[in-house]
Amino acid sequence: MAKNVARPKNIRFAVIATDIVVFRIVAGELCVLLGKVNTSPYFINRWGVIGGLVLPKETVEKSAERLLQTKAGIGSMYKEQLYTFSSVDRDPRGRVVSVAHLGLAKESLRAGEGSMDIRWVSLRALPDLAYDHNEMVAMGLERLRARIGYTNIVQHLLPETFTLSELQALYEKVLNRKLDKRNFRKKVLKTRMIRKSGIMKKEGAMRPAALYEFASKAVKTVQIL
Amino acid sequence: MAKNVARPKNIRFAVIATDIVVFRIVAGELCVLLGKVNTSPYFINRWGVIGGLVLPKETVEKSAERLLQTKAGIGSMYKEQLYTFSSVDRDPRGRVVSVAHLGLAKESLRAGEGSMDIRWVSLRALPDLAYDHNEMVAMGLERLRARIGYTNIVQHLLPETFTLSELQALYEKVLNRKLDKRNFRKKVLKTRMIRKSGIMKKEGAMRPAALYEFASKAVKTVQIL
DNA sequence: TCAAAAGTGTTGTGCATACACCCATGC
DNA sequence: GCATGGGTGTATGCACAACACTTTTGA
Fold first, then answer.
1. What are the angstrom distances between the C-alpha of A19 and each of A124, A135, A190, B100?
2. Is B178 on the interface with A (CB under 8 A)?
3. Model pTM?
4. Among A50, A70, A88, A131, which residue's beta carbon has the most beta carbons within 10 A?
5. Å between A170 CA and nearest CA of chain B
6. CA B148 to chain centroid
């Protein structure tokens, strides 16, 4: 290496944190998981995504998992790294570098029910969040939109079995636009990423719908849209 | 938030670092910038990508810029965040969380010339690197490959003006496969991401080639391949 | 006139889009 | 028999892949 640069006396000046932008469909709406933030005097009763400090003996991924568990009572879910936010003044209390994650939760999952401090909030009614969390949510949504077009990660927002109409509705929610039913079915079946479960869904006074399941739980890239 | 977790007595246990995987075409080969790593007794005379500690008053992006400047004498270049590596034992000396970046350098750029500690190394002859740097390089290459297919970032590997054959050769180097000349030209021109500069390149006993330039310096997403 | 790279079009095939009606069920 | 969502096919145009020869220049 060329030359040594002046080093700060204390090289451990920063705190490492992680934040998780968790999406989930709730009552037909694409929602994000928020928790109350109270870091007086800077943020009083604001909302923010779930996050917290990384511990000395855990990776940021493990930390994200632990924080979801302890702060929102959520078990395991699909997660991927999103972006690392390192603005010097992103936390008014001091230097905090946060590794943001994208998380996807199934509708069946229950989190923070009964708690006043944890809520699923529709993206169409997103408040001003603490810190740079609005930016994180925007980035998470952008990433989700991109990735459902070429991977099978939507499965993490769906139950084990689902109808094609439900799958299409989910794509439409995430992409925020209508899709053609026949073309959607052709495309999604052509990828072979889903297959018929063999079971039918009977519900109400309607023709029963075939229930499908994902062929592989591993994240795969396939051209869908 | 639900409950408080036990916090470590010193929450500032970690060091934040950044590493930059810089690609550049050198003599027709796709190369990556490496520097000598000597962290006795763990790594003696190994190679690794350029990196170092983030300072208290800089973002990781600024830090990457500074480190490239001071360690390799490189000015500004295109950079984007790649991934944050946080394995607990990725650095044998202690906990270091590193935010890796992807960098692209033009062939005209000179770095570390004359230094024994800085080298551009062909990807086809990549040695065992220090830390988790092989993983970083692999991830950087994967990202570059994906992104040249749908953005105009190749421009950062090219001089201001270039011929279509040079552009195609670059795509072939990065993707490591041959492309059809006529189809390549049609596709790349259809995106309108490049345009004729109006100048011709005369060289040797050959038909002169039209020189092209990028229409926009901003990173844009366009369907290319 | 030769060597070396630049430049250029057509055709077939498959894929995407647009679009509307019948089906199965429970009440 | 009606209301509700489930399920299906075709025609058209567009995009992509495969493919080979002529042009321009300097030596």
1. 21, 12, 36, 18
2. no
3. 0.93
4. A50
5. 25
6. 12
